[in-house]
Design brief:
By secondary structure, this protein is an alpha+beta fold. About 50% of the residues lie in helices and about 30% in strands. It has a 6-stranded mixed β-sheet with strand order 2-1-6-5-4-3. Strand 3 and strand 4 form a beta hairpin. The radius of gyration is 23 Å and the shape is extended. It starts with a helix and ends with a helix.
């Protein structure tokens, strides 16, 4: 009888503690999703208001920006140099997130995301990786790509073929 009571109590404690752990983990993940979303929302805000300093403070020192053109693969300093003239005009670009997905590494130190953006180029996709450095989330990699609806992809391929054939040829050398 004592064994049955002890077994029941231990089982209850295990189930209850796992439930509490899951709740804490879920709560922590929800808080961190809000924190990562704030970084991404601020990124869009700072670009639209041409806030160069705060925009680039969201990037880790060792970070990469990959743009829509095949030649746009820049470290932070290179991306800053490219972006500065745009920010100096008083408005860099204006992106609005329409749908965002965020996932975390098991240790909670990395987050990766993908989102659909409303931009001056119409729908684009932003995706990338953030790292929690100290208490702040910093962008390690950001990839911007244009979306191409399947039903017009053949037309788009015809348009971009002359430009990209040259790039492909150079990359194969």
């Amino acid at each position: 009888m004592k064994k049955n009571i002890a077994f029941t109590v231990i089982t209850f404690l295990l189930v209850f503690s796992n439930s509490l752990f899951s709740q804490k983990k879920g709560f922590y993940e929800n808080v961190q999703k809000k924190n990562v979303s704030k970084v991404l929302d601020d990124l869009n805000l700072y670009a639209s208001t041409a806030d160069f300093k705060n925009y680039f403070n969201l990037y880790a020192e060792e970070s990469t920006f990959i743009g829509t053109d095949a030649n746009e693969v820049w470290n932070k300093k290179e991306f800053m140099a490219y972006s500065k003239p745009h920010f100096d005009k008083g408005k860099a670009w204006n992106f609005t997130s329409l749908k965002r997905n965020i996932t975390f590494s098991a240790d909670g130190k990395y987050a990766w995301f993908d989102e659909l953006l409303d931009t001056q180029m119409k729908l684009c996709r932003g995706s990338g990786v953030l790292e929690k450095i100290g208490t702040q989330w910093k962008i390690r990699q950001y990839v911007l790509s244009m979306t191409v609806p399947n039903d017009v992809s053949k037309e788009i391929i015809k348009i971009k073929t002359p430009n990209e054939d040259a790039v492909i040829s150079d990359l194969k050398k």
